[in-house]
Write a structure and sequence with these properties.
The protein is of the alpha/beta class. It is built from 17 helices and 22 strands. A 9-stranded mixed beta sheet has the order 4-1-5-6-13-12-11-8-9, with helices on both faces. Strands 14, 15, 16, 17, 18 and 19 form a 6-stranded parallel beta sheet that branches. β17, α11 and β18 form a beta-alpha-beta unit. α3 packs across α4 and α4 packs across α5. The protein is elongated and about 85 Å long. The model has no long low-confidence stretch (mean pLDDT about 95).
Amino acid sequence: MNSHFDLQSRLDAVYAQYPEAGCQPVIGITGNYDDLTCKLGEGYYKSVLAAGGVPLIIPPIADTDTILNTLDRVDALILSGGADFNPLWAGEEPSPLLHGINQERDLPELLITRLAYNRQIPMLGICRGIQTLAMALGGRVMQDISAKATVKHSQDANRSEPTHSVAVEQDSTLYRIYQMSSQEGAGGRLFVNSFHHQAVEEPGSKFRVVAKSADGIIEAIESSEYKSILGVQWHPECLADGLPLFQWLVGEARSYRQACHTHDRVLTLDTHCDTPMFFPQGIHFDHRDPKILVDLHKMTEGRQDATIMVCYLPQPKPGETFAQQVSFEVSGPKAYADLIFDKIETIVNQNSRYLSLAKTPDDLWMNKHQCRKSIMLGIENGLALEGDIANLKHFAERGVVYVTLCHNGDNDICDSARGNNTHNGVSQFGEQVIHEMNRLGILVDMSHAGEKSFYDALDISAKPIVCSHSSSRALCDHPRNLTDDQMRALAAKGGVAQTTIYHGFLRKDGEATIRDVMAHLDHAIDVMGIDHVGLGTDFDGDGGVCGLADSSELINFTRQLLARRYSEQDIQKIWGGNFLRVMKQVQNV
């Protein structure tokens, strides 16, 4: 038998090894549409194959169930070229110079782009694809560039022939891609082909322009939010030197896949969020609610398992009452905390198939195994006790896992980092509170506390203490942050400090970003060691920075950890393992 047509011998080759194939990232490619046919130029899928990925052609289907299930199975997305967008999607009337539109593709591709963006899936937009990125994510597209163009942007030459050049920004991803693999990029110029009469006019806030042609037409954009998203106006799949772009995408897809698989195995816990602060505005936790940074959709998109959701109690200033500080009518701080916890329990009960309360580390793991997100309860400001030590038992029975002893102002327990040194540290009542928290198995949280209060609590507590959302004062000189000496003392007693994403605690000038978060974490590890760190975002308490703006972006934190070559064991420690070790130790009463 002719071996070329021998199916069994080919199957035998597959099953002669295990596993049958290496693990390669799956790259979805949006298909073009014409004459009742989904079609795609061979350059797209052959380039993905050459770059080490597995191509998967996605037909133009607007059914959201289909799109979402597709996105669950791909590791990156290519938005392919093709006909114009209907300008009505941008709220514009059609120009007389508008060419043919493709109504079959518009809605499916706008939907898949927005949904992939929310899931942090790497994307590469090509020709029409760069315009798709702009259309879907807040930019604008010119219907026709003829009035502005002085370079011919629709070549007659073969597609493999470059016909004009683009100037590339040297601090861009595109520059680095070609700097590493091609001399063409060394001078900041690339030679490209061109088959378009539309172009991105404004990239929008989510992108920055990184390449232009000689006549100023935008030729490439990339994410301004530290996401793996890049769009080019030309067709790299047709060019001899186009492969590096596909290699970049496959590399980002591999990183994304690795992060997703890591989240499958580790438990991801954010130790501080303030979402109840938005309860007076009427939130929808089962919606993707734009008012809040933490909800079921965003937690799912960012692959976050659990959060400690706190009841924040504002500290009244002299002459003010607590009732003047809160939006709900309650008799006092304790009743307010109970009301907040009642509302959290209502949210959980309404979404019990997907969400559950947790009181212990074992609860968190059980919920993860049963595919449910977890909420733990915390109190931010011991004002909730109303000066009565017995109220600690009440809150312990409600499931509160930690109490942040104070907030921005001294209370009857201790002095705040922003207080007036009322007690010179922890008060006599505060000492009783700490002992009772030890007895009941409630974590002592010293975020917001003054330095003297911090050291007093270390001395008083028989169990390790925590700082649920505190960064490093060595990197950002703010009284809310911990000094290196505080960090060392905390670690020596077995405690943990959770790096926070509050911009004012990350840097004193300019806009804080994910890079600052990682710098604070790295510094904390250098000072305390890997066993004493974690993450407490302060989402919905004004936390969130570019690159880690809400729960949907938390998988980017894991990608940063993987890029720094932390082991999975260390990633679990950072992603809540250290905090839960202390919780288990404190709860062992």
